[in-house]
Amino acid sequence: WRSAMAVLRILVLTCMLHASVALVLQPRAPPAVAAGRALTLGQLCELRTARAAGARLVRPQVRPVMSAPAADASGVQARVKARMMTAMKGGPDAKKELSAVRLMVAAMETRQKEDNLESLSDEQAQGVLGKLAKMRKESIVMFEGGGKAEAAAVEIFELAILQEYLPTMADEATVRVWIAEAIAEACPDGADKKMMGKVMGALMKAHKGEFDGKEANPWVGEMLGKAAAKA
């Protein structure tokens, strides 16, 4: 009886040993590969062993990193930023210019953040700078009217820099030709002073950004009044 039990124990232990060996030798993919992480030297060795044993490995899918498009170096915003960097290296002589250009850059970046944009198009940048130019013109009139020549000179200096990046404004003679065309378009049945809003709308639609609306406004009123008197 004791001999039979000893033989039975040997058989059980032998079966357990074979099962353990089979489990250890079963090829499997390293955990790091399945998880898509970077492999250490030890894991690379395990990977080579698994490949040699014929294991089927599931490779993680790697998505390519999309880089943001670079801003146009010739664009208005990029040129103003480049000018600011140059002025920063110019020392005391460039202090006035640096102050003006910094305000321009800050205004464009504010618009960029508000609209969640990578960068501003030339039209968008010029829209921002155009508003700054309008503010400078108003300040010049105010300072000159108040006898503050020094403050007006600063505004004139900054306005000159702004205008370098804005479209050239048409002269009065050209704008008056455009006004006549706008009157003909907006008032097909005859000119009327009450149509001034429509005339300005037609003028702005056809030549937006090419003239100063504040300057053109009295010209529109004058020409519309004369056209209405003739009708």
Structurally, how many domains make up the residues?
3
The proportion of residues in beta strands is under 5%
CATH topology of the largest domain: Hypothetical Protein Yqey, Chain: A, domain1
CATH class of the largest domain: Mainly Alpha
Which structural category fits the helices and strands?
mainly alpha
Number of helices: 10
Say how many strands there are: 0
Query: What is the typical, i.e. mean, pLDDT?
Result: 79
Order of helices and strands: HHHHHHHHHH
Q: What global shape is seen?
A: flat
What is the end-to-end distance? 135 Å
**Main sheet overview:** none
Stretches where pLDDT falls below 50 for ≥5 residues? 21-25, 29-41, 57-70
GO molecular function: carbon-nitrogen ligase activity, with glutamine as amido-N-donor
Keywords: Signal
Protein name: GatB/YqeY domain-containing protein
Signal peptide: 1-22
